[in-house]
Design brief:
By secondary structure, the chain is an alpha/beta fold. It has helices spanning 3-15, 22-39, 50-62, 85-91, 104-116, 129-135, 151-158, 176-189, and strands at 73-77, 96-101, 122-126, 140-146, 162-172, 192-201, 208-216. The chain has a 7-stranded mixed beta sheet with strand order 3-2-1-4-5-7-6, sandwiched between helices. Strand 6 (192-201) and strand 7 (208-216) form a beta hairpin. The longest helix has 18 residues, at 22-39. It is globular. The protein starts with a helix and ends in an 11-residue tail after the last strand. Bound molecules: S-adenosyl-L-homocysteine.
């Protein structure tokens, strides 16, 4: 990434109330360059130029930071080119992150990026969400997804993998609030409650984003999970 792009990244993170150290800035730069390089050969993402990578991938992924604790375990279901998993791991190095996608080449890219960035406690798994529960007995504090599926389907995959007090968080665009309201009865039937629907605006574009936070019924105070 060139100097202008790095400055845009700093501006976006500042708008989100975050600050990047020089190491994190370098990591985002390397990650963006690798994403562009691999994208020329394999189709990782439709978003290809620096500005869009910064705003629509990096800043969008980082809208989650304010509602996550700095430690614990996080599963990203259907992470594609590594979103939001890799930006979160760059900013929250003590979070243990597992990133899953059904398409092997995307997971190979994420492993390559994680090696270059020397990310510790980051695992990229080639698997279908449906098969995870059969092969893994780990349970997560957070299960997140972006642009993955409708809420009931995401929740049905996430629920067996969630700790009792854990949170499922769906990252949604325009219409996210309506989707959450429409799904609430179906979620209730499987023992899941919508605890929050946070509204965020993307830096630069001002596009609406919604973070739909869900938990098992009886898993604690709805406000207690905001650090
Ligand atoms: N979260 C990324 C990618 C979204 S595209 C982003 O926001 O940029 C949705 C991704 O989910 C694709 O990469 C697709 O391969 C993956 N996917 C779809 N169904 C899946 C399933 N059942 N299990 C795991 N991954 C799946």
């Amino acid at each position: 990434m060139n100097r202008d792009a790095l400055e845009l990244l700093i501006r976006c993170t500042e708008e989100l109330g975050l600050s990047l150290d020089s190491n994190q800035l370098e990591h985002f730069g390397v990650f963006a360059d690798e994403l562009k390089k691999w994208n020329r050969k394999i189709n990782l993402t439709a978003i290809r130029d620096d500005r869009d990578i910064i705003v629509k991938h990096f800043a969008d992924s980082l809208t989650l930071i304010g509602i996550l604790k700095k430690t614990g375990s996080l599963l990203d279901l259907g992470s594609g080119g590594g979103f939001p998993a890799i930006p979160l791991k760059i900013m929250l190095p003590r979070l243990s992150v597992v990133s899953v996608d059904a398409v092997e080449k995307k997971i190979l890219f994420q492993r390559h990026a994680a090696r270059l960035l020397k990310l510790h406690d980051f695992t990229a798994l080639h698997a279908r969400g449906e098969d995870l529960v059969k092969n893994h007995d780990v349970r997560f504090d957070y299960i997140v997804s972006r642009a993955f599926s409708d809420l009931p389907c995401f929740v049905s995959l996430a629920l067996p993998l969630l700790k009792g007090s854990g949170r499922i968080i769906a990252m949604k665009g325009k219409g996210g609030e309506g989707e959450a309201a429409a799904a609430s009865r179906a979620l209730d039937a499987v023992g899941v409650r919508i605890l929050h629907c946070f509204h965020r605006k993307l830096p630069v574009t001002g596009d609406d984003r919604y973070l739909v936070v869900m938990g098992k019924k009886g898993s604690g105070d709805a406000t207690a999970d905001i650090p």
